[in-house]
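dude i think i finally got it to work??
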Amino acid sequence: MTVGRKGMPCKRHALWLSMVFAGLAASSLYAQDNASPDGSSQQNNKNVQQLQQVIVTGTRTTDRTVAESLSPVDVISPQDLAATGQTDLASALNVLLPSLDFPHTAITDGNDALRPATLRGLSPDDVLVLVNGKRYHTSALVNYNYAVGRGSAPVDFNSIPMSAIDHIEVLRDGAAAQYGSDAIAGVVNIILKGAPGPGKNEIDTYGGIMDKGDGANNGVEGSMAIPLGKASNGASAPGWLRLSFNYQSVMSTNRAANTDPTYNYPPSVIFGTNYPPPTPYERYGEPAQKIYQAVINFQYDLNNNAELYGFLDLSDRRVTSNGFWRFWNDYDNNVPAVYPNGYLPQIVNPTRDYQGVFGVRGKALGWNWDLSANYGENNLQFDVQNSINSNLYYSTGYSPTSFYAGSYTTRLFTLDLDANREFDLGFLKNPLSFAWGVEFKQDSYDIGSGDSASWYFNPNTIDPNTGDVYTGGSQVWPGITPNLSGSWSRNNGAVYVDLENDLTDKLSVGAAGRFEDYNDGIGSVAAGKLSARYQFTDTFALRGTVSNGFRAPSLAQMYYSSTVTLVQNGQLVQVGTLTPNNPLAVSYGAKPLVPEQSTNVSVGSVWQPSSNFNSTIDVYQVHVNHQIVYSDQMDNTNPNYPQYSEIQFFLNGANVTSRGADVVLNGIQDLGNWGNLVGSVSGNYNRISIDGVTDPTLFGPYSQALLTDGTPRTKYVLSGDWNYHHFKLHADLTRYGEVSEISIDTPQSLNDFGAPSVGQEYAARWITDLTASYNWRQWTFSAGVDNLFNQYPTKVILANIAGDEDASVGLQYSSLSPFGFDGRYWFGKIAYNW
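look at this
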């Protein structure tokens, strides 16, 4: 039978949130009436009064606070990031943001190194990432597996070290009219640490290990700044330079059912026995990593009206991930003379990211102006080790066991001129904020072929045991052939205007428009946005936005090609990803890609009844037409392409709608001589629906269900801090809602063991994280545990062969799990601050 998601108990979740809301509001009023005279209750007001922080995302005025913003914005501090205990940015954001999902996939080739994160259940490509307000480059690799974000090539959050981050502003609203392509689900603006000052330099060392004894994670990170130039007349130096860095060593984990490589079975035994089968050895978990990262950020005053600024982000990560075990008598994929006991092939992905921004900004003729150049690049290389090319071996008598299999590179270059000023117009009560800008953007994409041994394939070399052609190419990742390599680029120009005005003391409005033109056949696109906010009382306001947006197809989606080994019905098959203009793809229905088009509507409230409590509630709807998706894998019946067992490609395959609500509550409770409590409750309800499919034979029920049910419909985050003198105890309690997948076959289909093929629902889980820290002079000592109660996701059942699931070979947890499947993690950190 086919398993889908059950109806959600919306009333129960609404009642639960209402009770929490009332409790926090009551405690905030109590705290207001019982504030201690020594002011201890105010030492962490910065954690509660986030609404008063000035923001730069979603607005081009210079004095908008979070509370005054016409769109919902979250502000995340470095203290928030550190308290999660996570050592990479995407995992930390997954803990902190209810509307974000970042599953930890495994045995997904290069996607073990570059994992996508989704916002509001939409494609990872629909999130625009900025660094210091400048567009950040995307990753070069397409997420080609049956996992969340399938078909996307988004920004790799983990290429930015957390030690460099001053704070993060997350705009939960469509903003293509303000920032351009990709800003459909929202915008993440990462603000880097800047000028030197007392207490703004830090170096720390950290370490951790999984409860099962693997996954050791150790590193050193820091951030320090120096003044540039000579100070005069008691003034500060005209400039500064800050260096932030991170070195990290991460060991792999294994959560396969059988972790003993000496205990294995050949495939003939597995698939020839009665259901259920014995469990073979696999290595299924987090990849091993070596990480080297540095960020340089600087600013220098040229005179009273102009300054130079810029930053350089450098990231070099070496990620080692695992393929599926090749059995000793899998003659198509193994050479027993080389690997008499079978072997585990591995992919080593050196992934290198570079981003540099250089600009000059200042004031002239009443205008604030900013001229900048921006270059970003991601290079992902595929090295294969502990492998073999069986076709090459049986064709020539020799095959290497290590290969260079090729590379993918994406590049971004932009030139931007932005300007804004305020105009006093007689018919308006307050000055009109007027901003405009122009942008030239060039995207480029390169595919580099591997060495000849990595892609060698002779269709005349036949396996006498099976009658099949020996599998060509390096096992786990066949090399990229020269005919698939190449370089592509496109240019586009853009112009925008952005207006904001406080029409009255209570009513604020905004309007933005953007026009872009592409040179590669995509054509022209336009976007607009209207926003408004009304302050009903001193403590309560409503806000709303209406906008349309767009996302141009990425060059990776237009030109990415590869051949990968995937599991289908318990068997290893070669699956080719073809460009939409490939003749074989066209014969199966591929067409040229066109931009996605979106419409966004949101309405929200801001309530701050006291200085100790605030809340925001926002409801939204995002509709995306022509969403670019990855097609289903289709059997290749064309004899002219024997290297592919199955094929897939990109298409504008679906129209989708995301509807939901975000709730954020913050409060503080004074405890007198016992310090204070700072609490936060946030939640997201999100439902994805598919309004239409271009061709169900290309984008079928399983892929559709992956969109609608592959991410949690609900996610709640309860956070609290107890501050007592030099001691601090932090706790996060996160509820990840259930996710599900349906059978990839029809309900009548049978799997390899003669049982009906089914999908599965994975139950919701509460995850508890604790961190304790003690501050002594300039030192801070921290220790904590993530997943205190050692929660694991629902185990995959043997009958579930949906997507990449395969419990028969010991993959006992699904990669759809929104919190991973590694279990409890212990960690510690020592930091020195000056």
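The longest helix spans residues 10-33.
im so relieved honestly
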